[in-house]
Write a structure and sequence with these properties.
single chain; binds zinc ion; binds 5'-O-[(R)-(carboxyoxy)(hydroxy)phosphoryl]adenosine; 41% helix; alpha/beta; 6-stranded mixed beta sheet; 5-stranded mixed beta sheet
Length: 400
């Protein structure tokens, strides 16, 4: 990471951030003011592409990129309006060439639209631009990164590249999500154990303090969210499968099925979910036409297997190392069956370890968590001077 030599006279004051998230299938922009003690959400707009990807049973990268390029101008405009900026012709005098130089080659239409927006909305009080630069779908990430580069260059602000999964970690700290309301910042006790369970990742991150993030375990194959989506698809349930599988699992109290818990007793915090998915495929192939009850039974047993793996690994980590707080993040942390079992495991181990779970609206991808994490990254000096904005690159496989 190249650090900027950028001096800011407002260094110790509040910071008004515009953050962009386009790593997967949500185009999201947040305008947030943060200090060490509090935060205030001016705007938070997310446009989901779920309808587009349903047909394919998962996210299709080229389509995701095109949809982000189409959606980002109106998501940005909505965010400007919600944040109280008013539209008027030539309200901000900008150098169009800066934007065209960055965007026109790759995204000519987008370039015109961003120029038009910036002429109409004077957002020159934004202090810094934050953007998810990975991991995720690289073509999709590039849309956010290029728009962020253009905004940072034209507004002459620093640009902060954020690790998407760091966003999911801090999402559990964001306890209030209403617009135009001031909230106190929550400061976690460390060491913190984060379990990130999303469509692309399933990993345990151990943090001795707020700046050190160490991956201590992860899935060796499918992510939990991916397993949810694949199992759903086998039963003709639309993408994303998680919410519907959760609903039907709750409609029964027990299941005649018992599916494998791969790597449950292995001497590692790593996990594996592809064998579980395959076992369900075999079970389904032995069944005739599936009734709603059959689907509910399968889903119930699937939840049992996933929860037992996650809870057993959490239990081992708690036994092996000091943990003061547990946080969950990622789309699957919206699942109450799984989160309740995790809460139970942690509280049975010790009633002194709180479990923070993100607000349901922040479990899946959103720019508020990216803005929030961007502030932390800025404090760690992970920002880039606007004249070096080209150093911010989309990195689909970004690791920790
Ligand atoms: O974090 P996220 O929005 O995107 C990634 O970064 O992957 O997570 C999306 C994933 C999808 O696989 C979706 O099926 C899953 O989160 N998900 C759920 C639930 N809501 C979303 N999985 C289980 N139960 C849910 N209620
Ligand atoms: Zn995510």
């Amino acid at each position: 990471m190249v650090l900027a030599n950028y001096t800011l006279d407002w260094y110790s004051c509040d910071m008004k951030i515009l953050a962009i998230e386009t790593s997967c299938d949500e185009t999201s922009i947040c305008i947030l003011t943060r200090t060490e003690e509090s935060y205030y959400i001016h705007a938070h707009v997310t446009d989901s592409q779920i309808e587009i990807h349903k047909e394919y049973g998962g996210v299709f990268p080229a389509l995701a990129k095109r949809a982000h390029a189409e959606n980002i101008p109106h998501v940005l405009e909505r965010a400007c309006i919600d944040a109280g900026y008013t539209s008027s012709q030539d309200s901000m005098s900008i150098n169009d060439h800066i934007i065209h130089d960055i965007l026109a080659d790759r995204e000519p239409e987008l370039s015109e639209k961003i120029v038009d927006l910036l002429k109409r909305y004077d957002i020159s009080d934004i202090d810094t631009i934050v953007v998810t630069h990975g991991p995720g779908l690289e073509p999709a990430l590039w849309i956010g990164v290029n728009v962020a580069r253009a905004l940072a260059a034209v507004l002459n602000t620093p640009i902060v590249p954020v690790h998407h999964m760091e966003g999911h970690i801090v999402s559990a700290e964001i306890h209030g999500t209403d617009l135009h309301t001031s909230y106190d910042s929550v400061h976690l006790d460390y060491p913190t154990l984060a379990l990130l369970i999303s469509g692309g990742h399933t990993e345990f991150i151990y943090m001795e303090n707020s700046t050190t993030m160490k991956k201590i375990g992860a899935t060796r194959d499918d992510a939990v969210g991916e397993a949810f989506d694949k199992v759903a698809r086998m039963m003709d349930i639309d993408y994303p499968g998680g919410p519907e599988l959760e609903n039907i699992a709750q409609s029964v109290d027990e299941s005649p099925h018992v599916f494998p818990r791969p790597m449950l007793r292995a001497d590692t915090y790593d996990m594996s979910f592809s064998g579980l998915k395959t076992a369900i495929r075999y079970a389904l192939s032995d069944m005739d036409a599936l009734s709603d009850l059959d689907k509910a039974h399968i889903s119930h047993a699937f939840h049992d297997a996933v929860s037992e793996v996650l809870c057993t690994k959490i239990q081992s980590i708690l036994e092996d190392m000091p943990v003061a707080t547990v946080v969950l993040g990622g789309g699957v942390s919206a699942n109450k069956i799984i989160t309740e079992r995790i809460r139970e495991t942690v509280s049975n181990y010790s009633s002194d370890i709180p479990v923070h779970i993100p607000h349901i609206s922040l479990a899946t991808d959103n720019a508020l968590m990216i803005a929030y994490a961007g502030y932390n990254a800025y404090q760690r000096n992970e920002y880039i001077d606007p004249t070096s904005h080209h150093l911010v690159r989309a990195q689909g496989n970004l690791s920790w």
